[in-house]
Design goal:
There is one protein chain. This protein is an alpha/beta fold. Helix content is 45%, strand content 17%. It has helices spanning 16-27, 39-53, 68-82, 100-122, 149-172, 189-192, 205-215, 220-232; strands spanning 7-11, 31-36, 58-62, 87-90, 131-136, 176-183, 239-244, 247-250. The two termini are 29 Å apart.
């Protein structure tokens, strides 16, 4: 998919990985609606990006992915402003084992909510123009992160949901590709505050730190470049792309006959 003239929505787009995703999509010619609960950061970023890439290229919308109503309003505003959208990056996420219901609500249910609302706009069976949805999962979605069981569960759910939706779309003719981005440790605010957000597993902070030291830490631009690959490469559907400082690799899963 060439991005010139395309329209993208990025949830959690004001900071961290989401900000890097927003910027790389703009660099490649897309218009971007960035959604976030942090209004100050979102408005400031959108203003800066519109100065850099041209007025009207970026739209900020306040949106909490725990609210289907807010998602619907933000997606409709994007469609009304830009004439539809072709790309959705379900990226909003938190890490806090002490508020595990919220972790599931944002990290997994937020992805599902966003996807289902996007289908109303993008599904070729209902007049949409198709496109691609990329969900930000995690290395933890592919193997257990011992100090964050709920985060692990939610991100594992994102991987499973993405792969199932990819298969459903292909068989049904939705015209939408689905892929999961699975980065390791990334230098963001979410990761820098991890030691205070392990809840009942805070005694495992040293083990978490040892794993981080062993794996190394990515910068957000490395993650965004892999996101771009999943968006642009039309052959990628149902993929989980593992990204680490050592490189990237597509995960091989066992196959079951339908």
């Amino acid at each position: 998919m060439a991005l010139d003239g395309k329209v993208a929505i990025v949830t959690g787009g004001a900071m961290g990985i989401g900000k890097a995703i927003t910027e790389i999509l703009l660099q490649n010619g897309a218009k971007v609606a960035l959604l976030d609960v942090n209004t100050a950061a979102g408005e400031s970023l959108a203003e800066a990006l519109n100065k850099q890439y041209g007025a009207g290229q970026t739209l900020f919308l306040s949106c909490n992915v725990e609210s289907e109503e807010q998602i619907k309003a933000a997606f409709q505003k994007t469609a009304d402003t830009f004439g539809g959208f072709d790309i959705l990056c379900n990226n909003a996420g938190i890490l806090d084992e002490s508020t595990w219901e919220k972790t599931v609500s944002v990290n997994l249910m937020g992805v599902i909510r966003g996807t289902y609302v996007a289908l109303e706009h993008m599904n070729k069976l209902s007049g949409g123009r198709g496109g691609v949805i990329v969900n930000t999962a995690s290395m933890a979605g592919l193997g257990p992160f011992l100090s964050c069981p709920v985060y692990t569960a939610a991100k594992s759910g994102v991987v499973g949901f993405t792969r199932a939706m990819a298969a459903a779309s292909e068989v049904s003719g939705y015209g939408i590709r689905f892929n999961a981005l699975c980065p390791g440790f990334v230098q963001t605010d979410l990761m820098s505050g991890i030691t205070s957000k392990l809840g009942q597993f805070s005694h495992l902070v040293d083990a978490a730190q040892q794993l981080m030291d062993k794996m190394g830490v990515l910068n957000v631009s490395q993650v965004a470049e892999c996101l771009l690959e999943l968006v642009k490469d039309e052959t990628k559907n149902g993929e989980a792309l593992l990204v680490s400082p050592q490189g990237k690799s597509y995960v091989t899963f066992p196959t079951f006959s339908q």
